[in-house]
């Protein structure tokens, strides 16, 4: 009987795995097709520099509206693309489109920077990294106006190849940011080992500030350490005036969030930048 049960469990497990794989394959195929059909596009979220009050950069965020008109969240499709490998094509599209859009942003009179997310899996290939650099160069975008955002788990994983590629990109002038800081097993210790330019603190780090005294104290400590290491801090997910004022008062370097603007399509971004100047 035990044998039968075991076997049944075995089959059941296989069925579930197979279903999951099939579901993933279906999304993968829809994404691959969607890339060809131009169903993917970018939106840009402005980031304010507290020291000047100006928008100094924007984060490019990927959007997918499928053939039926449904919007699918990157939180849903990025992990699938990472697993199936399609993230390489998606990432290439994101960089290329961001370069095209940024040429227009610069031509429109806004000498600002753009920040682009990179998954861990995109960083295991030196050839790809070289391709990114030549793409940036081809579009005449100074590499220093590009920041790549990577999650803190990569820095902590000690994956030599990825870290080597990050070093290489930075040596070529690209800036690096640690994304979602405060969501993993963040240790400030890692910050001194790997040269990064920015630390993006996750919104969960601030979600109860300024009422939560512990969050305020942690923010204060983090800002001090970052300042000592010459790393600029970008607060993500700033939604309220109270958070904004707290960050300003604590001399945080940059802020990003719905309080300033939600992510915008390029046309609306240009309009936003025009209004922000005045
Ligand atoms: P992320 O890089 O941490 O991006 C910030 C996320 O927070 C974005 O979600 C943004 O829309 C959202 N957000 C911004 N301000 C606020 C706010 O004030 N309140 C709240 N509640 N949320 C805010 P989004 O666009 O859904 O992206 C989710 C994640 O998907 C990103 O997190 C990033 O990890 C990933 N992702 C997005 N685009 C790309 C891409 O082109 N490549 C890769 N590899 N990953 C991407
Ligand atoms: Mg990001
Ligand atoms: Mg983040
Ligand atoms: Mg600074």
TrEMBL record:
<feature type="domain" description="EAL">
    <location>
        <begin position="24"/>
        <end position="277"/>
    </location>
</feature>
<protein>
    <submittedName>
        <fullName>Bifunctional diguanylate cyclase/phosphodiesterase</fullName>
    </submittedName>
</protein>
């Amino acid at each position: 009987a035990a044998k039968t049960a075991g076997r049944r469990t075995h089959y059941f497990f296989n069925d579930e795995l197979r279903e999951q794989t099939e579901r993933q394959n279906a999304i993968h195929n829809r994404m691959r097709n969607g890339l060809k059909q131009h169903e993917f596009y970018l939106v840009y979220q402005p980031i304010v520099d507290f020291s000047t009050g100006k928008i100094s950069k924007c984060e490019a965020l990927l959007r997918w509206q499928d053939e039926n008109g449904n919007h699918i969240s990157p939180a849903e499709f990025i992990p699938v693309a990472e697993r199936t490998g399609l993230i390489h094509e998606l990432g290439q599209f994101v960089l290329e489109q961001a370069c095209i859009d940024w040429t227009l942003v610069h031509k429109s009179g806004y000498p600002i920077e753009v920040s682009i997310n990179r998954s861990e899996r995109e960083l295991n290939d030196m050839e790809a990294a070289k391709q990114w650099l030549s793409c940036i160069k081809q579009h005449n975008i100074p590499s220093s106006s590009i920041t790549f955002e990577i999650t803190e788990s990569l820095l902590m994983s000690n994956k030599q190849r990825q870290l080597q590629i990050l070093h290489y990109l930075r040596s070529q002038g690209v800036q690096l940011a640690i994304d979602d800081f405060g969501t993993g097993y963040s240790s400030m210790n890692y910050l001194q080992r790997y040269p990064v330019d920015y630390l993006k603190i996750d919104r969960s780090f601030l979600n109860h500030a300024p009422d939560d005294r512990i969050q305020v104290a942690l923010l204060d400590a983090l800002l001090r350490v970052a300042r000592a290491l010459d790393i600029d801090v970008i607060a993500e997910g700033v939604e309220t005036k109270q958070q904004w004022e707290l960050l300003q008062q604590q001399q945080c370097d940059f802020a990003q969030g719905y309080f300033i603007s939600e992510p915008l399509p390029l046309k609306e971004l240009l309009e936003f930048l025009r209004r922000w100047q005045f």
